[in-house]
Specification:
Number of domains of chain A: 1
Number of helices of chain A: 6
Radius of gyration of chain B: 15 Å
Order of helices and strands of chain B: EEEEEEHEHEEEE
Radius of gyration of chain A: 17 Å
Shape of chain A: globular
Function (chain B): Probably deamidates glutamine residues to glutamate on methyl-accepting chemotaxis receptors (MCPs), playing an important role in chemotaxis.
Distance between the termini of chain B: 24 Å
Structural class of chain A: alpha+beta
Enzyme class (chain B): hydrolase
Strand content of chain A: 25-35%
CATH architecture of chain B: 2-Layer Sandwich
Largest interface: A-B, 33 and 36 residues
Keywords (chain B): Chemotaxis, Hydrolase
Number of strands of chain B: 11
Shape of chain B: globular
Strand content of chain B: 25-35%
Family (chain B): Belongs to the CheD family.
Helix content of chain B: 10-25%
Strand order of the largest sheet of chain B: 1-2-4-9-10-11
GO molecular function (chain B): protein-glutamine glutaminase activity
CATH class of chain A: Alpha Beta
Largest sheet of chain A: 8 strands, antiparallel
CATH superfamily of chain A: CheC-like
Oligomer: heterodimer
Order of helices and strands of chain A: HEEHEEHHEEHEEH
Number of helices of chain B: 2
Chain lengths: 206, 164
């Protein structure tokens, strides 16, 4: 895979910024609390180094496949450490016990939060690009984050040894909640996104 | 590969996805999901190797030898033989190959295919499989210290630990 040029990195990071801001806003509304968001990082990560970005800490992952006009487009994943996930559903469901097991209510709350955030993320990026991007129904995994990601990598990185890893951190100090929004685009999707971004930049340059 | 202390008493070399390592140093693979941690051990020399296999078949690709079951088995055998191991002294164990969630594509589980490919590869090379902890739906982190013995410590997300 050809490495991304600095301009392409900037463009992708700006795209991610818009998407993640929308996602952060929806999360803030759902929790009725302030959400801080880090500047999204776009990195080309070697498979062998994935563990430096996604650890084996037990986490709740809500996984979506990007669908719509970009078919089999890759994945968007919302990852929260288990303790954060618990505090988030407690906040939403009005409960206090953090030592309990995740139940069905927690699971559907997590799926719903993921759904709303990822829809906002994809809507905002797709609108900018002028395409339709929709999330698949969510899949919730509660396990080692690295272990869950491996199964996605086996599809996304079948032919390549590097993945474009788009990553932003969301934190809510009020409830001590933090999570990561990660996008793993498929190579074809990435090229398509870059083309669309180029067109967009050219249009603005005229 | 990087040195890191993963909460174990000794520092272990982290074998990332698609990587392999041979020698006497402690080795670890973090968060094995559908991937397989394949370990080969020479109890006479107290050395061994670990590969973090992601896919069942290389289809002739030579870019990442540890990434595919077939090339990973070959390279571990080669490297261990360079370090003085003879093939009939080597034994294998494997961990991983879970199906963490139902595939979006509905394809056959990649974890299952990895397990079968490693089993078939070892059989073909005449290496005996001395232990395994494979399949299921949960991730695993493994630690192997060749200098001690052929024990693989396995840790799961819920904190339970076991050994094979």
């Amino acid at each position: 895979m050809a490495l991304l040029t600095p301009t392409q990195m900037d463009a992708l990071s700006e795209l991610g910024n818009i998407g993640a801001s929308h996602a952060a806003t929806t999360l803030s509304q759902m929790l009725m609390g302030q959400i801080e968001m880090t500047v999204p990082l776009v990195e080309v990560v070697d498979l062998a180094d994935i563990y430096k970005h996604v650890t084996d800490e037990t986490s709740a992952l809500v996984i979506f496949q990007m669908q719509g006009e970009l078919e089999q487009g890759g994945y968007v994943i919302f990852i929260m450490p288990l303790s954060s996930a618990m505090r988030m559903t407690n906040t939403m469901l009005g409960m206090g016990d953090e030592e309990r097991e995740l139940n069905e209510m927690d699971e559907s709350a997590l799926n719903e939060v993921g759904n709303i955030m990822v829809s906002a993320f994809l809507d905002a990026t797709a609108e900018l690009l002028g395409v339709v991007m929709l999330p698949s129904p969510p899949v919730l995994v509660v396990d080692m984050a690295h272990a869950a990601i491996e199964q996605l990598l086996a599809e996304v990185a079948f032919d390549v040894n590097e993945v474009v890893f788009f990553h932003t951190k969301l934190t809510c100090d009020q409830y001590a909640i933090n999570g990561d929004l990660v996008m793993l685009p498929e190579m074809n999707t990435l090229s398509r996104i870059l083309e669309l971004m180029d067109d967009l930049l050219k249009k603005h340059a005229c | 590969m990087a040195d890191t202390n993963q909460g174990h008493s000794q520092r272990a070399i982290v074998i990332g996805i698609g990587e392999y390592h041979t020698g006497a140093e402690p080795m670890t693979s973090i968060g094995l999901g559908s991937c397989i941690g394949l370990i080969m051990h020479d109890k006479i020399l107290g050395i061994g190797g670990m590969a973090h296999i992601m896919l069942p078949e290389s289809g002739g690709k030579r870019d990442r030898l540890g990434k595919y079951a077939d090339t990973a088995i070959d390279i571990l055998l080669q490297e261990l033989s360079k370090k003085g191991s003879s093939k009939n002294m080597l034994q294998a164990k494997m961990v991983g190959g879970a199906q963490m969630f139902a595939n979006f594509s509905g394809n056959l589980s990649i974890g299952e295919r990895n397990i079968e490919a490693v089993r078939a590869g070892l059989k073909q090379k005449g290496i005996s499989l001395k232990g395994e902890d494979v399949g299921g739906t949960k991730g695993r982190t493994i630690l192997y210290c060749p200098a001690n013995n052929f024990t693989i410590s396995i840790r799961r997300a819920d904190g339970t630990c076991s050994e094979i």
